[in-house]
Amino acid sequence: MSITSREFWTLVHGMGLGALFLLSFAGGLAGLWSLRPEYLTNAGMHERLGRLHWGVSIMAVICWLTVISGTWIVYPWYRAKPPEGATNLAAFPRSFLMANEALARWHSFGMEWKEHVAWLSPFIVTAVAFVVLRYRERLATNDKMRQTMINLFILSFVLAGIAGALGALITKAAPIH
């Protein structure tokens, strides 16, 4: 079994970086949710905040690497234009999808989501990481701030999850060879 370099980078983007971000979400959410003074000693608070800061910061980096690798490595292959008069569009995923009325929505909705909306995810998770670093103990004692960060964290996950699901389905319909 062998894979092309394009398939390799598609795997790195989606199944590597994207999946790692989505899988690490549960740990970040649990860390934010359980960051409450009544649950922790002072030493426990310090340890938990350090772990939460590093975990969410690493998630932000992974999320940035996911969208950057998708935008500047994988996406140009997806969007490549076929030569004039080409009839076999299998090697040109965007053109293949757009040429088939039953598949065109995979591009018009799915890739538009991935191109534009998915970019919100790294911005949001970076904002959460910044608040964790900047406000540390105040995040634990301010229920409204912590709940806002949890909501933003969930939003980042949902946006990335939808992008990942759409990417997997688009790749199934029109793989990058």
Give an overview of the whole structure.
This protein has 177 residues and is an all-alpha fold. It is 79% helix and 0% strand. The protein has six helices and no strands. The protein has helices at residues 5-33, 42-79, 93-99, 104-116, 120-141, 143-173. Helix 1 (5-33) runs antiparallel to helix 2 (42-79) and helix 2 runs antiparallel to helix 5. The longest helix has 38 residues, at 42-79. It is elongated, with a radius of gyration of 20 Å.
Mean pLDDT, as a whole number? 92
What is the number of helical segments per DSSP (H or I, 4+ residues)? Answer: 6
Q: What's the alpha carbon Rg, rounded to whole Å?
A: 20 Å
Q: DSSP strand (E) fraction?
A: under 5%
Q: Looking at the structure, what is the overall shape? A: elongated
**Amount of helix:** over 70%
Number of strands: 0
Element-by-element helix/strand order: HHHHHH
User: Termini, distance in Å?
Assistant: 14 Å
Main sheet specs = none
* Class from secondary-structure proportions: mainly alpha
Ranges where pLDDT stays below 50 over 5 or more residues in a row are none
